[in-house]
Amino acid sequence: MDISTGLGLVFGGNVLVTLIMMGGDLKMFLDVHAFIVIFGR
Asked: Would you give the end-to-end CA distance of the chain in angstroms?
């Protein structure tokens, strides 16, 4: 794993935490259709 992968994971996690703390809901990040596209056959 190179430095950009680690920085991307940290930055992405910070974005999610910030959006949730600003009044978002965790349910807005969970989508059945997206799950099927990513993990489906």
From this structure: 27
pLDDT in tens, 1-41: 789 999 999 999 998 888 888 887 777 777 888 888 888 86
Rounded CA-CA distance 41/5 in Å is 26
Of 38, 37, 20, 41, residue with least CA distance to 29: 20
User: Are 38 and 30 a contacting pair, CB within 8 Å?
Assistant: no
Closest by alpha carbon to 10, among 28, 18, 39?
18
Taking the CA atoms of the chain, what radius of gyration do you get in angstroms?
A: 13
6: tokens are 């680690």
